[in-house]
């Protein structure tokens, strides 16, 4: 059973964000993004499919709602910065065979997880989901409708990632008809020199046209993605991009840091290192971006996410019920995650499991009528406790002792005696405060939340964080 307790609303609005160069230098090491705990590097590389089947049975018995994720890997264009699992092709006919296999996989998972459970959250990611022709999109969603209990009420959260370059006059109306009500638009930067350097030519007017049409149709909670640290970006040029984006009035903004790792991601070899902004310039860009977005009325949700005060993410955070999973920040903490497609990661209350990252291998497994799970991990009670604690800190910026005791029947100070001892330097540096009732992340600690969370990460206790990106 999932340990639950009523979320603790914040008693007051969090103080303003605070930037402290000295603390950033001290704590800006590397660390996980905590879209899961344990993190993906702890997954068993030979996770038995039988364990996933057992986890799905336990999930089915719980009756919790479901979140349905689909990884659609196709892209018509190669963006040089991209580190996603993708297939670059202009051949649209490849989409239907892939979708047919996804539906075969969905049929298996529907039986395992329970076809009658309400799907309150659904997301298409990639890749470029809008690579799919209209009839293929319809076929996929109709198949899901036969296999799962898709919801149609206003409370559903059905989202899709959109490349504005891959949108024609039918795309948005089709997505709306299929039940999607939220979209995320990839922008990255509106500066033509930056766009050319990363092979993503996307005029501002193109983005605005898609966004305005989405609003006219009725899509809500529209998100725009930006990336800082790309070639030829400067604090001045990115400030101009930010002004252009603020004028578009998105409900949410994701502002990601580019990590240049050409040894790991071959497309990044097309990017010349000497064209990238310096580490200090990147910090300046981030500092200016946060200040400007706060000034423009956005709330800092955490890490690289911002939202308008009336957006569901901001409301959920204020009410103490924000959640984090492989799709980032979400309001659907009650959902188990069924994931379909190559490399997709699923989640139940006590397990994670990932499909094969290699497309031909995934196809072979599905064609044989088998699941393509290759990695995963079963969670111990300690894992679940630490996941809950890290979730409270990274989502609510607060860890309440009474709530912890109610959920886990444990005493926080006794259970985490060692961790609270190692937290003392952060208390002294005023990254976090402890009034005896709760640990409260302070304004200077919000940017460094990943460092705070690592204190409670048993797998990082020995300092093994070199496999992760820098915190800032």
Helices and strands in order:
Blueprint: H1 21-27, H2 49-62, E1 66-72, E2 74-75, E3 87-88, H3 95-113, E4 118-126, H4 134-147, E5 149-150, E6 157-162, H5 171-177, E7 182-188, H6 192-197, H7 204-217, E8 220-228, H8 235-248, E9 252-257, H9 279-295, E10 299-302, E11 305-307, H10 312-318, E12 323-325, E13 328-330, E14 336-340, E15 345-348, E16 351-355, H11 359-367, E17 373-378, H12 381-396, E18 398-400, H13 401-408, H14 412-415, H15 417-422, H16 424-428, E19 432-434, E20 438-441, H17 449-454
Parallel strand pairs: 1-4, 1-14, 2-3, 4-5, 4-6, 6-7, 7-8, 8-9
Antiparallel strand pairs: 9-11, 10-11, 12-13, 15-16, 16-17, 18-20, 19-20
Helix pairs in contact: 3-4, 8-9
Using the CA coordinates, give the radius of gyration: 22 Å
- Oligomeric nature of the chains: single chain
Strand tally, please? 20
CATH topology of the largest domain: TIM Barrel
Structural class: alpha/beta
The tally of domains stands at: 2
CATH class of the largest domain: Alpha Beta
CATH superfamily of the largest domain: Aldolase class I
What does the overall shape look like? globular
Strand residue content: 15-25%
What is the second-level CATH architecture of the largest domain? Alpha-Beta Barrel
Which residue ranges are poorly predicted, with pLDDT under 50 across at least 5 consecutive positions?
Answer: 9-15
Q: Main sheet?
A: 10 strands, mixed
Mean of the pLDDT scores? Answer: 92
Function: Involved in the heme biosynthesis. Catalyzes the anaerobic oxidative decarboxylation of propionate groups of rings A and B of coproporphyrinogen III to yield the vinyl groups in protoporphyrinogen IX.
Catalytic activity: coproporphyrinogen III + 2 S-adenosyl-L-methionine = protoporphyrinogen IX + 2 5'-deoxyadenosine + 2 L-methionine + 2 CO2
Subunit structure: Monomer.
GO biological process, one term: protoporphyrinogen IX biosynthetic process
């Amino acid at each position: 059973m999932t340990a639950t307790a009523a979320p603790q609303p914040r008693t007051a609005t969090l103080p303003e964000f605070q930037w402290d160069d000295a603390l950033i230098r001290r704590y800006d090491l590397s660390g996980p993004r905590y879209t899961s705990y344990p993190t993906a590097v702890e997954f068993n590389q030979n996770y038995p499919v039988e364990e996933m089947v057992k986890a799905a049975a336990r999930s089915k018995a719980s009756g919790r709602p479901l979140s349905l994720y689909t990884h659609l890997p196709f892209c018509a264009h190669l963006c040089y910065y991209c580190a996603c699992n993708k297939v670059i092709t202009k051949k649209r006919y490849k989409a239907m065979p892939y979708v047919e296999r996804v539906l075969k996989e969905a049929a298996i998972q529907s039986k395992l997880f329970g076809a009658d459970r309400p799907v309150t959250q659904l997301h298409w990611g990639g890749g470029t989901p809008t690579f799919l022709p209209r009839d293929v999109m319809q076929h996929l969603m109709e198949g899901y409708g036969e296999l799962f209990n898709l919801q149609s009420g206003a409370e559903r959260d059905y989202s899709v990632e959109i490349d504005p370059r891959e949108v024609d006059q039918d795309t948005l109306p089709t997505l709306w008809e299929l039940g999607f009500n939220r979209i995320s638009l990839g922008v990255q930067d509106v500066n033509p020199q930056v766009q050319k350097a990363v092979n993503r030519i996307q005029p501002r007017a193109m983005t605005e046209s898609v966004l305005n049409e989405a609003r006219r149709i009725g899509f809500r909670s529209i998100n725009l993605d930006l990336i800082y640290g790309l070639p030829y970006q400067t604090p001045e040029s990115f400030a101009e991009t930010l002004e252009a984006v603020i004028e578009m009035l998105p409900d949410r903004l994701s502002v990601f840091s580019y990590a240049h790792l050409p040894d790991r991601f071959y497309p990044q070899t097309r990017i010349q290192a000497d064209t990238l902004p310096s580490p200090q310039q990147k910090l300046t860009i981030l500092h200016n971006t946060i200040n400007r977005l706060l000034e423009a009325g956005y709330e800092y949700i955490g890490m690289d996410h911002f939202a308008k005060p009336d957006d569901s993410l901001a409301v959920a955070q204020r009410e103490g019920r924000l959640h984090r999973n492989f799709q980032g920040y979400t309001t659907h903490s009650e959902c188990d995650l069924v994931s379909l497609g190559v490399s997709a990661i699923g989640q139940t209350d006590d397990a994670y499991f990932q499909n094969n990252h290699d497309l031909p291998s995934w196809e072979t497994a599905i064609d044989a009528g088998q699941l393509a799970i290759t990695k995963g991990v079963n969670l111990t009670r300690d894992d679940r406790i630490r996941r809950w604690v890290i979730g409270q800190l990274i989502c609510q910026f607060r860890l309440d002792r009474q709530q912890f005791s109610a959920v886990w029947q444990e005493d926080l100070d006794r259970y985490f005696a060692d961790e609270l001892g190692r937290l003392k330097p952060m208390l002294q540096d005023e990254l976090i405060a402890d009034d005896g009732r709760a640990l409260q992340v302070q304004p200077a600690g919000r940017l460094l939340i990943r460092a705070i969370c690592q204190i409670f990460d048993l797998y990082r206790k020995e300092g093994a964080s070199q496999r992760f990106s820098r915190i800032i």
